[in-house]
Amino acid sequence: MITNEPSPLSNENVIAPQTQAEVSAPETPSTDRRWLELFKAFGAWGGSVGFLILVPLAFAIPYFIYLITSKRMPTAEQLMQDKTFLLLQIVAVIPAHLLTLGLAWILVTNRRRRPFAQTLGLSWPPGLSAWRGFSVCFLVALLLLGLGALITNVLGGGKTDLDKLIESSYQARLATAVVAVLTAPLVEEVIYRGMLYPALEKVAGMGLAIAIVSFLFAGVHVYQYWNNVGVILAITILSITLTAVRAFSGRLLPSVVIHLVFNGLQSVYLILEPFLKKPENVQPAPALIELYRSLHHLLF
Known about the structure:
Elements: H1 20-24, H2 30-69, H3 76-79, H4 83-91, H5 93-109, H6 116-120, H7 130-155, H8 161-167, H9 170-182, H10 184-204, H11 206-225, H12 229-249, H13 253-277, H14 287-299
């Protein structure tokens, strides 16, 4: 007897096999993605350190050539007192920071496949208005400045290499202030708290990630302040605070604002300090004129 029931072998009951692409393309394990992000983060960090070493050297080469051709090549001690050379070392930090930011943009966006600011968390935490967020960050920066001043006054210490750079000329003082406000806060936060921290947190957990990032940030600054324990301790406290803010807020923007205010207030004092102490002796050194003469002799 013929029935209308479907056969077990009919097309209606046969499950379509998976395509070859579906079978041979398993999802990438999350652990692989974590290690890849960590590799990118340390690549960006290594690039930032490399740029800070190589770019100032590249800026100094034309000046070295001029000194050699003019038979004025100074000794190492004289070079460290050469106002033009010292100014070049400070100005060169700006392109070094811009190159670092470009490298970070390439790695974070995966060549424009992801949004840069959104991926890094450059926004305020949910429920926190911009005005309230800025106010809180301003107060935190003030507290850090006060604590840093207290520590350095108690522990004391000699003049750092950065102090000597700043005091070499008024132009150097201005250039340092510009770098400290315009590029350093954003670039350093993008590398340390924007890329390194979240990558480390996924692999090692919050506590260890905060410790590692804080140590790396403070360690990079040690060469500037190696003979002043108080300043190194203050920088370490700043680094721990910025990283903890990033960790507990889940956003990068608060750390950037705290860093910006912290550097900005110091930069204002840096510019005004000579006038407040000895205004009659403040005469901007002719470093820019000397630089122009150097390039002019080199090119013509």
